[in-house]
Amino acid sequence: MVNIRLPMGLAARLSGYLAILTQSEKSGRTHISSKSLSEYSGVNPTQIRRDLSAFGRFGKRGVGYNIQFLIERIREILMVTGEHNIALMGAGNLGMAISSSSIYTDHGFRIVAVFDIDPAKVGRQVGDIIVQHVSELTATVPEREIVLALLALPATAAHEVTESLIEAGVRIIFNYSEALIEAPAEVVVHSMNPAGELLHALYLGQR
Amino acid sequence: MVNIRLPMGLAARLSGYLAILTQSEKSGRTHISSKSLSEYSGVNPTQIRRDLSAFGRFGKRGVGYNIQFLIERIREILMVTGEHNIALMGAGNLGMAISSSSIYTDHGFRIVAVFDIDPAKVGRQVGDIIVQHVSELTATVPEREIVLALLALPATAAHEVTESLIEAGVRIIFNYSEALIEAPAEVVVHSMNPAGELLHALYLGQR
Fold it and tell me: Is the minimum CB–CB distance between A79 and chain B shorter than 8 Å?
């Protein structure tokens, strides 16, 4: 296992490739060209070839990269093998969409707890899980070995919930809300930016 | 208005900054430092300063960038001023979450039509809009001047719906599903990659 610190941009791109390669494999493919990978990822083919040449094997001309080989190598390099227990914060529409999606389970992410503050949602069943009140967070995080929390809640609730998560010992927060979240240096907050991506799509399409 | 073709990475980053700056302004701020913008965007501060120096004015030391000024300049450069009519494809949990979010309306995106194929959803009201059957797409796209479609549907339905959208004249497709979509060169398909981003968050938090 290569255990060096990857440049920030490279780690982000490899993570993106890994998700795309996994989807490709599920759809029955065994090989993928840098051109296809470029179309799906939005990264230019030259950059892709440069990123993947680090693995010591090049894609064959006319055949492309071996998908299974790349998946295994990238997983090792990113150290994202194994299972990762997630707490889903928010049992609204977005939370329900996330919990019913298979794209997270494909990568070893397991939602092991769902929290909300709405009395109408607490106690309800989401998949196999009973929605708990946020007040149970401190006990639940160590009990279910939760390493990552996914925020699928209104921006107004995000800051308070983030504080509770940090107090409960969660060190990785994946922010699906529109809130701008600051956290201590030892906590990783990674935010989705769908509005930014939509603006980028509009830019690309309007030229 | 600067009407040059921006490098691919720069356009993506500026789109991301624009969404974050808009959120910052909404929360009542007038200025932002490159450090804060870095924390929210995941782009390193040096890159941010380089990207924004192109605007001819630098952030003041200790004060930071003027948010309103930057928003206006970036909007012009990306040519994303004005209103942009959207068709939302899918009235499930994800579609409902998207339609109730304000982050799109902040940037002039207006959902003017919602489509589904599920008879239980067609005819229902989502906000001010009645869910239509996908078969009405061809008539509705020109009628409501739809420039962009947002896919919030299962991967299995994504390819067929994409074909219908292209036939109906939509040239920008924002893919929120996990499907890998290929399209003709004149159509822009931009895909969200939440699994890729989650893997990146895990990588960042595990070191």
Answer: yes
| Secondary structure letter of residue B2 according to DSSP | -
Could you list the pLDDT tens digit for every one of the 207 residues in chain B? 445 678 878 999 999 999 999 999 999 999 999 999 999 998 989 999 999 987 766 556 678 899 999 999 999 999 999 999 999 999 999 999 999 988 889 999 999 999 999 999 999 999 899 999 999 999 999 999 999 999 999 999 999 999 999 999 999 999 999 899 989 999 999 999 999 999 999 999 986
Token pair for A128: 């196999």
ipTM of the shown complex: 0.93
Does A2 reach chain B within 8 Å, measured CB to CB? no
CB contact residues (below 8 A), chain B span 88-127, against chain A: 92-94, 96-97, 100-104, 106-107, 109
Cβ-defined contact of A20 to B107 (cutoff 8 Å) = no
| Interchain contact B12–A (C-beta under 8 A) | yes
**Size of chain B in residues:** 207
Nearest to A194 by CA among B77, B98, B6, B44: B98
A180–B19 CB contact, under 8 Å = no
With a CB cutoff of 8 Å and minimum separation 6, the contacts of A180 are: A191, B20, B23, B24, B27, B40
Strands B188-191 and B31-32: unpaired
User: Rg for chain A (alpha carbons), in Å?
Assistant: 19
